[in-house]
Every structure is written in C-alpha cells, then in structure tokens.
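Hi R.,

Here's the chain you asked about this morning:
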Amino acid sequence: MRYYLFLLLLSSFNSVGAIDDYNLVLSSGQSLSIGHTSQDMNPIIFRDEVNPNKVFLFNGVRTTAPRFDQSLVESDVRFLEPLKDLTRQTHAYSMFEMLEYLYSLENKPFPKFVYAPHGRGGQKISKLEYGTEPFENGLTMLRAGERLAFESGENFNVPFITWIHGESNANSNLQEYKQKLSKLYNAYKNKVQTTSSKTRNPILFMDQTGVSYGHDIAISSWEFANDNETVSLVMPKYFLNRNYFNRSDERTHLNAKGYILQGEYFAKAIFTTFELNKKWKPLQPEFLRIENNKAFVTLHVPEGDLVIDTQTLPEAPGYGLKYISPSNIEYIPQVSIQGNSLVLEFNTTLEVGGKIDSGFTLDDRQNTANQKTPVTNIRDTSEFISFVDQQPLHNWLVQFSIEITPQTPGMSAAINTSGYNIWDGGDIVVDIPEPYSIIGGNYNNRNLNYALYRVSFDAEIKSGIPILNIGDSIIPITKEGRNSFVAIICEPNQDMVSVVSTQTTFTGAMQSISLKPILSETNFDHNSIDELGDNIWPSNVTVENYEADKFSITGDYFIKTKLRYPIYLLEYKVEIDEGSAYINIGDFHKKINNSGIFHTRVPICKPEYGRLRFSTGKTGFSGKINNIEIKPI
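And here is the predicted structure, written out as tokens:
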C-alpha cells in the first residue's frame, strides 16, 4: 500500500485557467523529451495504462513521439487509444499519474488528456521549429484533437505545452536561441488560436539541461522563463543527471527512474499553476544585494525552507556558487543561510561587471564519465512525495548567472562605483600625424554594455586637438592635464511610461510614484536630490484599487514624456492585495509583486556600438595622453 504526502501551500480555488474539457498536450524537444535510454539496462517501470478512461494517445503515434522520419498522416490520428508504450519509459506516464493523484487530493474530477508528443532526439531547435516535420506532426495532432472533440460533443482545449530541450544548442548563440524559442512558442500559440481551444495562450513548461556542456544554455532557459509571464521553468535537471543517469559512461540521458521523477516534477508545476492559480517558479534568485565583499541572494523558495545538502549530491566548493570578476578571476565564497537568502562572503571586493554564478565549481569528472557535471548543494524542504521511491521531490537551486551592474542594490555605496577599466591600448605619444588618423585604439574592439562610462586621462597638448570616440559619442580634448568626465553612449528612443496588469490581474495600490533622471554628474547616491532631475511621473496619476483584464494598462494611459537620460531613479510605494503588475519605462520592464517601499535604477537603453579610439583632429596632433582609464559606471 502506497503512502503519499502532498503539502499544499495555498488553499485551492477555481482558476480562470483551470484545466477542463478535452485537453490536448503538445510535447516537444529532443531525446530527453522522448525517454531515450539504454532499454536493456533501464527497462520500463510503468507497464500498465495511465487511467485508460482519461489519458489517451493517437492510434498511430508512439508515447515516445513519431519515428525519426515519420510524417503523420490521417490514418495515424483517426482515433484514440489509452496511453501505453511498452518500448521505453517517458516522463508522460508519471506526469499524468501524478496529476490524477493531485486532482483526487482536491476532490476534483480528473480531466481528459490527449498526449501529442512530437519531439525528435539529437535535433537543434532549428530542426523543430515552425515548418519542420516534427512541428507539422504536432499540428496534425492539434487538428485531429479538435475534430475528435467536436465529434464526441465535448469542448476542446490546449492548456499547456511541454518543452524539454537544449543539449544540441549548448554551443549556439544564446541570444539567438532565446529568439528562436520565442518564435517557436509564438508559432504554437498562433496555431492554437486558430482552433476552438478555450485556452488562447497555452503555458509553456520547460526545464534546464543538466549536462557538462550545458551551463550557458541552462541559464538561457532560466532567463527565457523569467522574461515571459506564460512560461514556467519547472526545475534544473543536474540532480537527475547526477543520480539517475542512463549508463555509468553516459550522463546526458536518464534511466527509467529519472524519467519518472522528471514527469512528477512537471506534474507538480502544472498543478500548482492551474489549480492553485500560482505561476510555478523553481528555487531561483529573486534579488541580489552587494555589500563590499558580500553578496546577499534572496531566493524564491517554492516549498518549505532553504537548506544545504551535501548528502544527496557531493559537496561542491562554495556549494556550487562563485564570483567571476570582470577580469575573469573566480572566487569561491563562504556560504551561509539567512531565512530565504544565501549570504556569500568572498575574499575580494565585488565590482560592477562581475557575476554571481551557480552550478560549476565542482570538478569530479573522474566520477562522472570524464564530464564536469553541474551541481549545487542548495535545495528546499518540499514534502511532496514521489510515487517511484516515496522520497520527497525537493526543489534544487537553478543554474544561474547574475551580472553586477551599477543598478545592483549596494553598488552605489561601494568604494569604487566603476567597473573594470576597458582601455588596454596603453599611453599615446604622437608627433603630428595625418588629420583624422587613429592614434590609439580601433573600431569594434569592445562591447560597450553600459549607458554611462567614466573617462579619465592626463593630456599634454603641444598642437592640434585629439578626439575621443567612445560608442557614438565624439568628444574633442582641449584641456591640458587631468581630464575626467562621464561619456553617454546612447540616447533612449522610446517615451512610453505606464503600469500594466499581468496575467493574474492586479489589485492594490501604487502610490508616491517618482521617476527622476539621474544626471551625468551624480555620484549614484539616491539621496543626492540635487543631482536628480525633475519627477516626470504626473503627480495626479496613482494606480489604486484597480482590477483589470490581463495585460491591460492600469495607469489609465501611456504617459508620453521624453526620456532624455540613460538612467532614471524609480521610487514607489506598493500595497498589493493580489496579482502583480509591470511598470514599463521606455524599453525597461519591472515586475511589481511585493508590497513595500522600493527604489531602483532604470536603464533606458543599451549601447550597440563597439567604437573605442583616440584620433587626431583636422590639424593633426602632437603631444601625449597617458594614465587612460575608461570604466563603465
């Protein structure tokens, strides 16, 4: 007799997005989405159907998805049969079994599901996107599902999509990967919206890769989920790759137990989202504050408390956490827990341009098939029990990387508020070269990632006027001796200012809103009122006791005001009853989901130019420029 324990965090209530009717579940990705494993070593565990009256598969489709070169035709989707495939384990079995159990705990009827797998092993996202054979297979099942629902006199619904992918794109341009994933997700939503589906924007559930070569792509997945309100990152997967691997010499794929656990984690996230009406988020950083050599990382803890666990996984230096300096030197911290926060203490001062990174401090490749595999020792104390081994499904800390910027709380109080010097061309000594010739530096030798730079150097001018080119700024140098000034790299081109309700709608109040430009001369102390411009938020606009449709403007209208500066100081007081909202300032978006008094620095634009050089004026130049420092503020 099995005993299952599920700790509900919230009292359940009916959600506008609740799963009901006749539900098609689109599922795509690569080999981990189809259950690839060594079948002789890892035989299937679930040999019986998962509730044959409620969970179905199309007659010509395997639970592991169509064959590698199979393009589905009408005869493959003519009727439904119970979800069952004796060839190998997939996450689908345990996902649906766990979902049914959770519905029973709430005394709710378990809906009907039609599983529509169409992933393909070993494929980059470009081989799974709109127009490819796997995507078309998904569309074939989408149309067939709607037809069968109509024929049975039931409503049709596509509540969510599962996406398990990333290994094949581990070495791709990560920004391009996120763009492709956004395009793919939009293609799914557009196709769903051509049907009669009750859900117009199905939620995308995805996870992080847990393999040695996948740190960057794992971070990309985490960022994508945080950037999209209707995308949920279910979990990191390194603990499955560590403990439930396919073979001792192959850690990318999972064994049967690993796939069962993968499916149960997905079920937990799906149920929380739809039936508890709370977007699922994994154990992940929510807020970073710096104090000299300490980083305070506040985490979203899904269930229970925050703990350090060196028994389930091997102990990693810094429990998997590190600081990467702007000069690419790695530092391992002393780590302690304060409530829901990690306190990381380093033996160096933390600088703008550095990163707090999670996942890759342990190199025990002699134990992991000669692959340096990610690991952290940080988890919560979830009491949600697995079917397969009656052990808790703890939520482990995601792999992440957070850059320390001038806007990171605490950096304004640091001794040095500038980042790492980006000038590496040395001193410049010139004796009247040709007009406008380059005397130091060159084009496109730097990625200028900040809006403001502190420039300083000593100048000895014998004749002529040298010119500093930094980004799109052209600055003549006419002053002898010490020069020190702030260079503005770009100007914002959007003047939109508004507050917008999110998917869950927003009720409450935003008061005392202040949005003031930080002028070039500021020392970045937010209390230095004299160094801030005038408040550009109209004093008569307060968001109060407002209940709106999803993504509607709660500030009544877009405020048209020219954003003339690259950085603004935003201050506001919030009292939230429920839901959350976004404040949009130019091309900057900040989520409002906590009550209290807040202030944050808002960057309006990001430079695109890489130009960094000194050149002569039209009359040439003779003299010397030395002690050059150009640091992002």
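One quick note: The two ends are 63 Å apart (CA to CA).

Cheers,
M.
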